[in-house]
Amino acid sequence: MEQIEIGSGDARWSLKGMSALVTGGTRGIGHAIIEEFARFGAVIYTCSRNQKELDECLEEWKRMGFRVAGSVCDLSVRAQRDKLMETVAWLFQWENQYPGE
Ligand SMILES: NC(=O)c1ccc[n+]([C@@H]2O[C@H](COP(=O)([O-])OP(=O)(O)OC[C@H]3O[C@@H](n4cnc5c(N)ncnc54)[C@H](OP(=O)(O)O)[C@@H]3O)[C@@H](O)[C@H]2O)c1
Question: PANTHER family, alphabetically (predicted)?
Answer without folding.
Answer: NADP-DEPENDENT MANNITOL DEHYDROGENASE (PTHR42898:SF6), TROPINONE REDUCTASE (PTHR42898)
